[in-house]
């Protein structure tokens, strides 16, 4: 494996570490930008007169299949809305056409159309009140300075809640994790169907909890890219609350400590034992 | 001043349901303190307090000033706490929120007004000069129970701090440098600490050392200031449903145990720091002093 | 052995802010904790916000006193330098605030943090902490910088990385900051000196901060044995942390 490339703001991305230029255009993720080269000092530069420069510190990650390059930044950063991200938003207030939602605290509200739900009409739209939660997709983030983030719980093309599970979240509990952990959890849950064995992005926590808590009825989970994880164990009967707390503690634990898959399993076993759930 | 982002209904309901079952989000018992770590910086009176995810730094400093006209025999002691955006994004730099005056008030009551620091011992020359002791509290991370954490920080700082020695010679005040004379500890009369409970379910459930989310879900707080001897120097309960007298009494005995436990932890931290300093040869000053006495 | 190293930096010492870092300077003993919240809404400053850009707020809190004129002055220096390199028009940033809070937790000599004394000895520690905190909050920037302090003794000798005592006794004290490309970004000087001295100070500071490509590629040993350059130190600090956080990427 090639040596990792660490970038600091202003650093040029070495052109030999980018996906080879093919017909498809190169996709740049956040933290990278294209600059035209004004003074070409080094002679071995690529023939193109453009360079890709980092704006954020982190590890260069390239995806050859998607022909994309991005920067893996500090995982504790604040969430910035990006189209197609799935987020857990909290209703702040509602107006004629929109629910005004909080995606990140102390940031401007995002807008969620009153009718942007599966099968919603003027009569059947959900009546959400302040403090209710929704699982939504970022529809657009707008352009320019006054840009507003718009959310939707429905795919506007099909009128269905796609991917499944979008819409109001009732009951359960929300836990806060870092944006980096949320991204890893999400990747894991989307890939888990394919290969159950390998940990995705080094996380085994959801698979492990799923196995261990199956006997009490399992749990439902929704991960928001904005660093929120919604958990519901309402099938758990008497142990529902303890199971939810245990899941929350496991999430906080993997967020606070960088544990190997083996240590994660050990810590999960310990927490479940402490919560008297190791049946 | 913007407030902390409100809890979602799901969070509030869940925390309340859990408290009803006696379960807390971090798996603690209702009367259990979060892991507490007290450590000291290089300078005297520099304390780092880590209480779960709440952390703060307290700094004690001393300077020579003129005593107040109405209290010529007393030194000055002040607690300065300014909440910055470091502790929570809800706090704005340079703007006072609701929390800051409240916490400062309680700290003032528990530590300053209970005379934990003997201010008379700070007098150098009557009506002319005295020591002014200042406790700065820098809140670096806020996850609930700021009052208790700040109390621990200030009390540990006062016990750790050493002020320069000063003497009066022929009506002149001479302040010795730290290199010249062993700096002297402050005169602590007693060691009060605050113990903060939060009430839930119409005052039926009382929880100790609440996290930020628990604080937000609670009805109100119940603060007690107690020292090791069990002297109650402060009680407040400003909000929430009434708590019956028996609960208050049982809580105060819980509080006394907590204060003893925490004071024990402070003592232990102080002793190990002192031992560390001695080992590192930072006690050279005292050796130099001994040499001088012998000579 | 090389002169004392560049000090200890650590990322994310606290949880609440979007980015945070501490830095301890070994020679002056300054220990600074920096926190960044960005991009966030500044409700009270709504009318003062620039419509197209992010607004940078800098707040410096001294260890044992209330903030006063000296802090306001360094805040201005920091705001000018950082405001120039932060890309305030990137997505999510216009009309929002980048709030930088720096708390001086421990300051060299207690004398050094007293009123009326020079702020230059503290400035490099503040600048480095601010940069580390901004990096950890992933605030987009066009470049990064490194900075150093240099003292010139009355006899004209140049002292790199002076202690507080050295700075007190010096004829002049200079703080310089260079961009990652080696351009001069900031110069603050105090005391009396002539232009030739400043030129010498500048050249010396550049070699301390910025590792020229030729030198790194060349004979391996850099002529001035000043430990590692600030640039190398900064890059290594970031690599250590990021490498640790993303260890699973290499598994």
Automatic annotation (TrEMBL), chain A:
Q: Which GO terms describe its cellular component?
A: cytoplasmic exosome (RNase complex); nuclear exosome (RNase complex)
Matching InterPro entries, A to Z? Exosome_RNA_bind1/RRP40/RRP4, KH_dom_type_1, KH_dom_type_1_sf, NA-bd_OB-fold, Rrp40_N_euk
> Pfam families given for it?
KH_6 (PF15985), Rrp40_N (PF18311), RRP40_S1 (PF21262)
Q: Where is the K Homology domain?
A: 172-235
Q: Where is it localised? A: Nucleus
Identify the keywords attached in UniProt to this record, alphabetized. Exosome, RNA-binding
Positions of the UniProt region annotated as Disordered: 1-28
Domain Exosome complex exonuclease Rrp40 N-terminal: where?
A: 26-73
Task: Show the GO MF annotations.
Answer: RNA binding
Q: What is its main location?
A: nucleus
The Gene Ontology biological process terms listed for this entry are: CUT catabolic process; exonucleolytic trimming to generate mature 3'-end of 5.8S rRNA from tricistronic rRNA transcript (SSU-rRNA, 5.8S rRNA, LSU-rRNA); nuclear polyadenylation-dependent rRNA catabolic process; poly(A)-dependent snoRNA 3'-end processing; TRAMP-dependent tRNA surveillance pathway; U4 snRNA 3'-end processing
By its UniProt entry, which PANTHER family does this protein fall under?
Answer: EXOSOME COMPLEX COMPONENT RRP40 (PTHR21321:SF1), PNAS-3 RELATED (PTHR21321)
State the protein's name. K Homology domain-containing protein
Q: Which organism is it from?
A: Penicilliopsis zonata CBS 506.65
From TrEMBL, chain B:
The record's listing under Gene3D superfamilies reads: GHMP Kinase, N-terminal domain (3.30.230.70)
Example GO biological process term? U1 snRNA 3'-end processing
Q: Where in the cell is it found?
A: Cytoplasm; Nucleus, Nucleolus
According to the UniProt record, one GO cellular component term is: nuclear exosome (RNase complex)
Any single Pfam family the record assigns to this protein: RNase_PH
Source superkingdom: Eukaryota
In which broad location class does this protein mainly occur, judging by the first location in its UniProt entry?
A: cytoplasm
InterPro entries listed in its UniProt record: ExoRNase_PH_dom1, ExoRNase_PH_dom2, ExoRNase_PH_dom2_sf, Exosome_comp_Rrp42_subfam, PNPase/RNase_PH_dom_sf, Ribosomal_Su5_D2-typ_SF, Rrp45
GO molecular function terms attached to this record: mRNA 3'-UTR AU-rich region binding
Q: Where is the Exoribonuclease phosphorolytic domain?
A: 32-164, 200-244
- UniProtKB keywords: Cytoplasm, Exosome, Nucleus, RNA-binding, rRNA processing
Protein family per UniProt: Belongs to the RNase PH family.
Q: What is this protein called?
A: Exosome complex component RRP45
Q: Which organism is it from?
A: Penicilliopsis zonata CBS 506.65
UniProtKB/TrEMBL annotation, chain C:
| Family matches, as SUPFAM superfamilies | Ribonuclease PH domain 2-like, Ribosomal protein S5 domain 2-like
Instruction: Mention one GO biological process in which this protein takes part, according to its record.
Output: nuclear mRNA surveillance
What subcellular compartments does it reside in?
A: Nucleus
- Main subcellular localization, coarse class? nucleus
| InterPro entries given in the database record | ExoRNase_PH_dom2_sf, PNPase/RNase_PH_dom_sf, Ribosomal_Su5_D2-typ_SF, RNase_PH
Protein name (database record): Uncharacterized protein
The terms under GO molecular function for this entry are: RNA binding
Higher taxonomy: Eukaryota, Fungi, Dikarya, Ascomycota, Pezizomycotina
- Keywords in alphabetical order, please: Exosome, Nucleus, rRNA processing
| Any one cellular-component term (Gene Ontology) | nucleolus
